[in-house]
Amino acid sequence: MAAVQLALRCAGNPGDEVIIPVPCWLDYPLYTRFLGLSPVLVPLSGQEFDVDAAAIFDAMTSQTCAVLLSHPSNPAGRNYSWASVSALAQVLERAAARTGRVVTLIADETHRDFTAPEAYCSMARAWPASFIVYSFGKYHFLQGQRTGYLAVSPRHPRRSAVAAEAVRWARIAAFCAPTALMQAAVPELLALRHDLTQVERGRASVSAALRDAGYHVVPAEATLFLYVATPDGRNDFAFIRDLAAAAVLALPAPLFHHRGHFRLSLTAGPRTLERVVAALRKVAAA
Ligand SMILES: Cc1ncc(COP(=O)(O)O)c(C=O)c1O
To answer: What is the reported pLDDT for 116?
Structure first.
């Protein structure tokens, strides 16, 4: 995801630290290290995987240049409330007062279009020094086309300079340059809306069926995924192998820098999802 790399390049210098709430999208720490920055992994809080503003504040040092998170969150599927978003902005304000450094908030909004209308609060509303990252890959089912963008908040205190720096980095890192196809597609894609009824039905019915089968399912309001606790005492990878033997492919939590869970995708049709639930019932009982 080129836009995350551009955002990190603009936010800090080698040796700086980036706070990453976990579980997180799997490649954030990889990109961070590749750029000579140090990832500092801070757990999301509790069984509902909310942003833990106090833990983020405690993890911040004078070396912290950015907080990088997906909102809504992948893999947990949470759409953070305004209370969570503003609590995070408040600790960034306190950290700036403590260290004298304005920390950049990099919000990956790739899954924002899976939220209910009017139910989404962008981080950029709460913290001026924000970068928004977006991929058209999920909402438009264009995975692998690498079509997306990095936007600097209009309220960023150094907006023009930072935006110019992002353009320069896009030229230097040639893989970040938008293709002609992408440039032509973006205005159309921004206007295109889809009916999400099937995804929402799948999320509700699979969550309910798995809870009925004894699984703990993280309450999800967004994304194409469900994040589910691995049944007690089972090893994450062994459990995923058992699921694969039952013809269900899922991703284990360690890929998201976490443990004790797995991520299921809801992109299949209703009949396939029913088969997935039946297989999960069987594997849980085994
Ligand atoms: C939160 C998040 N960010 C970034 C990406 C990468 O998007 P793309 O593959 O379209 O570059 C994904 C895809 O899985 C994602 O879920």
So the answer is: 84
CA 137 / ligand 1 centre spacing (Å): 7
Looking from the CA of residue 135, the nearest atom of ligand 1 is: 10
Pocket of ligand 1 (CB under 6 A): 1, 25, 70, 74, 108, 110, 135, 137, 143, 146, 148
DSSP characters over the chain: -HHHHHHHHHH--TT-EEEEEES--TTHHHHHHHTTPEEEEEEPBTTTTB--HHHHHHH--TTEEEEEEESS-TTT-----HHHHHHHHHHHHHHHHHHS-PPEEEEE-TTGGGSPTT----GGGT-SSEEEEEETTTTTT-TTS--EEEEE-TT-TTHHHHHHHHHHHHHHSGGGSPPHHHHHHHHHHHH-----HHHHHHHHHHHHHHHHTT--B----SSSEEEEEPPTT--HHHHHHHHHHTT---EEGGGGT--SEEEEE--S-HHHHHHHHHHHHHHHH-
Give the per-residue pLDDT at 17: 98
Q: What does the mean pLDDT of the chain come to?
A: 95
